[in-house]
Amino acid sequence: MRHWHPQSPNIMLIKQSQQSLIQVTQNGNQSRLTTCKSIAPLKLINPRTHNPYCSVILSGYGGGMVEGDHIDLQIQCDPNTTLYLGTQALTKIYKTPNNIPSTQTLTGSLDANACAAILPDPIVPFANSIFHQKQNWHLEPNACLILADSHTSGRRAFGEHFDYTQYISNITLSTPERPILIERYHSEPAIHKPNLTGTFGNYDVVFNLFIAGTPNEPRYTHLISSLQNTLAPHIQLPRTTGNTPHPPGDLLLSYSQAKPQLFVIRALSKNVESLTPLYQAIGNAIAHPSILNDNPLTRFSR
C-alpha cells in the first residue's frame, strides 16, 4: 500500500480538500488497494482475500451520519483493475435539528478496461433528516461501471413514512465524449409527499441500477444479457379480473437499454427484503469470471 510522502504535492491537495481517497492498481492478476486515505466520519475497510478483485467496504464510527457530517471520497481505478465497493449495513441518516444536511460526494474515475461494482446498501433517512448526495463518474474506453443507488421512506418499524425533511441525489456518468447519464432526484415530503404524488404509491424503497460501458465490450454485454434473462420473469404486467385490477406485488421493476452505453434498472419494493430477487440477479451477473468471479452479495439472499 502506498504511503504519502510529506513532500508529495498530492498530500497537500488532499489535506486542503479533506478528501478521502481510494486508488486501485493492477498487480499481476490481482487488483489491489495501493492508496487509501479516509477522513472521519468515513472509515474504509479493505478485507484481505484471495479474490482477484479489490474489495473496499464503507463504514463509519456511529452507525450512520449525523447532522453536518460530510463524506467526500475520490475513487481512482487504474487500467485493467476491478473494484467492489459496498457498505457494512444500511446507511442511516439521523435527524438534523438545526437543518444542517448530512452530505456525501463520490467522485470516481475508471481508466481503460477498469471495472467497478459500486453496490452500497440502501440509505435510510430518519424523520426530520436532510441528506444531500452527489456522484460524478468518468469512464475511459472499455471501462465498465455497475452503480446502485437506493433509499427507503424511513424507519417503518418506528412508524416513519416519508417523514424526512429533504433527500437529494444527483448522479452524473460521463465518457470522454459526453455525459451519458444525468440523474436528478429531489424529495421534500413536506411539499409533496412521494406516496401521494404517484412516485412511490404503497412502496417504501426505491432502487436504481445503472450499468455503463462500451457497446459490444464483453463484460458490458454479459451484464445486460444476464440481468435481462434473470429479471424477465419478475416483470409484472397490469392484470385485471373483470373490472377489478390485481394488486401489485412486493417488487415492481423495469429495465431499459436507455442508450448504447447505458442500461438502467428501476425498482420499487415494499421493503428491503423484497429486493432479494434483484440482489440475487446482480450478484449472479457480477460473479462471472470476466468480472468479479465471486458473488459478494450472498448475504442479501439469506
Count of alpha and pi helical runs: 3
Order of neighbouring strands in the sheet with most strands: 3-4-7-10-13-16-20-19
* Shape, principal axes of CA atoms: globular
Percent helix, as a range, is 10-25%
The ordered H/E elements are HEEEEEEEEEEEEEEEEHEEEEH
- Strand content is 35-45%
Outline of this structure?
The chain has 302 residues and is mainly β.
Please explain how this structure is put together.
This protein has 302 residues and is mainly β. The protein has one domain. Helices cover 11% and strands 42% of the residues.
Would you spell out the secondary-structure blueprint of this structure?
Blueprint: H1 9-17, E1 20-27, E2 30-37, E3 43-45, E4 54-59, E5 64-65, E6 70-77, E7 82-87, E8 91-93, E9 102-110, E10 115-118, E11 123-125, E12 130-139, E13 144-152, E14 166-174, E15 179-187, E16 205-212, H2 218-231, E17 240-241, E18 244-245, E19 251-259, E20 262-269, H3 276-286
Parallel strand pairs: 1-6, 4-7, 5-8, 6-9, 7-10, 8-11, 9-12, 10-13, 12-14
Antiparallel strand pairs: 1-2, 3-4, 13-16, 14-15, 16-20, 17-18, 19-20
Helix pairs in contact: 2-3
